[in-house]
What we know:
Structural class: alpha+beta
Strand content: 25-35%
Radius of gyration: 22 Å
Number of domains: 2
Distance between the termini: 49 Å
Number of helices: 5
Amino acid sequence: MATSGLTTLEFDALEIIEEAYERCGLEARNGYDIRTARRSLNILAQEWANRGLNLWTIEEATLSLVAGTQSYNLPTDTIDVLEFKLREGSGTDQTDREITRVSVSRWADIYNKNHTGKPTQVYVERKLTPVVKVWPVPEEAATMAYWRLRRIEDVTSAAQTFDAPMRFVPALVAGLAFHLSVKRAPERSQALNSYYEDQYRIAADEDRDRSDWMLSPRMSRI
């Protein structure tokens, strides 16, 4: 596929798996070899979610607030939420007002949690299905905009392209090679892990916000 004279290079999961096996001094010979590598790829994706902010997984979404309703479910693939805004108006008259995310301790300190008004604070319960609670309870229907970190998509097929930008492919292959070595070539694990950490650091350093301020998840005290 060519665009403006440049070739778009993509690797599917099978190519990544084959390269990772080769770095372990092995070959993927049967269906189980592919299946166990695919499982390790999905575990690696969750590890990346735990490591920090993956910019390509930030998505803007909206939530319709209902008068008298305090709790709302977020999509199940939501890892965390970075920002909340109360969105009012539309078109050129649209405005976004700040909504502050509070910790569980601050939420617990709210004396009258059933007070109604225009929401100014939110509390996020990071359960299997994340829940956001707003305060004051909306006195009328409204729209809340939010920016969330979603989970990296699972690899369900060897022909699938991994849900990450090309700049992360070196770290992806290195990480999968390390994970496979733990199971199949433990004598190479230390060297492969060291190389993986270097590749991930390079990719993570490049995958950053270059504006004057940095987006980072708020760490709520539990």
